[in-house]
Amino acid sequence: MAVTRTFSIIKPDATRRNLTGAVTAKLEEAGLRVVASKRIHMTREQAEGFYAVHKDRPFFGELCDFMMSEPVVVQVLEGEDAVARNREVMGATNPADAAEGTIRKTFALSIGENTVHGSDSEENAAIEIAFFFKPEEIVG
Description:
The chain is 40% helix and 20% strand. By secondary structure, it is of the alpha+beta class. It has a four-stranded antiparallel beta sheet, with helices on both faces. The longest helix has 11 residues, at 122-132. The chain is globular and about 40 Å long. The model has no long low-confidence stretch (mean pLDDT 97). One of its GO terms (cellular component) is cytoplasm.
């Protein structure tokens, strides 16, 4: 397996409950290394731009409002097969379906307040990383 990068967001439900360190620890314990990280308060423009793929879905407005409701932590993660590894440690979107020990099983409040976002492919990871980070902000 090759060392690759993926993108992660620690969502408002987690930052509100002061879980940034606990979530990051689970990512690191899974073999992922944080090579860029920043805490931001997402603007409407950022939320709508980032989630533009969902703009025609009924939950789009609610999703954007949620992502702007509290600070988030955007991160670039690096590791062997980073996208798959991150998705495995995150767990299923619905925390009720997530495996024991995963981030969502441990910390998520609901399907909507599910603690983390992670890229679903290397192609999307590159797009999502570039949305929030300049190349010089990523230090490995």
